[in-house]
Design a protein that fits this description.
single chain, 13 strands, binds ligand PGU, seven-stranded mixed β-sheet
Length: about 425
């Protein structure tokens, strides 16, 4: 019997639209090749970066002879979970103080999204999730395979290369009550277009009035503005109103821990936001308030217990190393401060690449308005280049990017900006 035959009828699956770009890049022998596909930070020398503070944390961990390699609990490292919830919801979050938050360690952003989605598919009454159009290419697959039904809401307007705020409000306004809504916490991928805080407030009011459930994907905290707190503002607005909220966090980009696969899922349950004194005035007795606080803490514990049932048959429990690095940094105020400085430097370098690319295109007189390069936020520029132009740039200039025209600004350097500007100029003038 031919041992290979049982799978002989398989069709060859296509490469992943994002990670496949790196596969193609690796096969290209050209010395001038440039990978602007995957969202991964590179230095001015074009090299991957391990943060100094991460190296230091790793050294501390290696030197600590008391550390062992036993299994973590199903929900992961307790310190890491607490600190992660604080990082996204805020150290003074009433939800955390009232024990209304259940947090589990996840396999980076993707794994945390998947666990959240599986949990919702099992325990939430509405199985429809609205995702922005466009969004990160893996979102529809993660949510569909978890058992949710995916619909889109308008987000980006190609004409203005900005937010289609009216379309967003209309589509969420027309969503069925209770539907889940995926929101990019900051630095929207792939468009680099974020709502303003005023617009977030309107989105929040609309969603709460319709009972829509916010599920934040926070893959770039600190990468948008350079400030961890400023970038978490939209999430904190939703948590502060006392309504339910889910947040999937990734430390891939902001701590440069891509391959360590370290992230977290937090689920904040509904609760009271006013101070105890105010509520006693309304409710009449301190006991009623205590009962309520107790009940909500009880819900968080039930949520956690069910998350464990999702995780255990999937991968049993998460890896220890990456979470230990993060916990070491987050719990030490000096290391935390060092991290924020290194993070700000990464964000600033990306902003400077935006300026340099914009200037280079202006200097070449490249036809079109390229101001979106400096206006967009985060790791990516959504250039507006079409598939044909992208293919041309890859073939003629060995520049690799996703076919939707997204470029990772973090992959650029002062040395490679002219090459990219030449390629864009040629693509636009010859194939415009
Ligand atoms: N959510 C968003 C919005 C993302 O952009 C990414 C990564 C993730 C989640 C997942 O990141 P984790 O590595 O699982 O923490 N997007 C990058 C990286 C490549 C990829 O597609 O996974 C990108 O280039 O879009």
């Amino acid at each position: 019997m031919d041992p290979g035959s049982v799978f002989a009828s398989l069709v060859q699956a296509p490469e992943d639209p994002i990670l496949g770009v790196t596969v193609a890049y690796n096969k290209d022998p050209s010395p001038n090749k440039l990978n602007l596909g995957v969202g991964a930070y590179r230095t001015e020398e074009g090299k991957p970066l391990v943060l100094d503070v991460v190296r230091r944390a790793e050294q501390l961990l290696v030197n600590d002879q008391s550390r062992v390699k036993e299994y973590l609990p199903i929900v992961g490292l307790a310190d890491f979970n607490k600190l992660s919830a604080k990082l996204i919801f805020g150290a003074d979050s009433p939800a955390i103080q009232a024990n209304r938050v259940a947090t589990v360690q996840g396999l980076s952003g993707t794994g945390s999204l998947r666990v959240g989605a599986e949990f919702l598919a099992r325990h939430y009454h509405q199985l429809t999730i609205y995702i922005p159009q466009p969004t990160w290419g893996n979102h529809p697959k993660v949510f569909t395979l978890a058992g949710l039904s995916v619909k889109t809401y308008r987000y980006y307007d190609p004409a203005t290369r900005g937010l289609n705020f009216q379309g967003l409000l209309e589509d969420l306004g027309a969503a069925p009550s209770g539907a889940i809504v995926l929101l990019h916490a900051c630095a929207h991928n792939p468009t680099g277009v974020d709502p303003t805080l005023e617009q977030w407030e309107q989105i929040r009011q609309l969603m709460r009035s319709k009972g829509l459930l916010p599920f934040f994907d926070s893959a770039y905290q600190g990468f948008a503005s350079g400030s961890l707190d400023a970038d978490a503002q939209p999430v904190r607005m939703f948590v502060a109103d006392g309504g339910e909220c889910l947040a999937a966090q990734s430390y891939a980009k902001n701590m440069g821990l891509y391959g360590e696969r370290v992230g977290a899922l937090s689920i904040s349950d509904a609760g009271i936001t006013a101070s105890k004194e105010v509520i006693i005035n309304i409710a009449g007795s301190s006991k009623e308030v205590d009962d309520f606080v107790c009940k909500t803490a009880d819900v968080a514990s039930k949520v956690e217990s069910q998350l464990k049932l999702v995780i255990r048959p999937m991968y049993s429990n998460p890896p220890i190393h990456g979470a230990s690095i993060v916990a070491t940094i987050l719990k030490d105020s000096k290391m935390y401060d060092e991290w924020t400085v290194e993070l700000k430097a990464m964000a600033d370098r990306i902003i400077s690449m935006r300026k340099q690319l914009f200037d280079a295109l202006s200097a070449r007189g490249t036809p079109g308005d390229w101001s979106h390069i400096i206006k967009q936020i985060g790791m990516f520029t959504f250039t507006g280049l079409n598939g044909e132009q992208v293919a041309f740039m890859t073939k003629e200039y060995h520049i690799y990017m996703t076919s939707d025209g997204r470029i990772s600004m973090a992959g650029l350097s002062s040395k490679t900006v002219p090459h990219l500007a030449d390629a864009i100029h040629a693509a636009v003038t010859r194939m415009g």
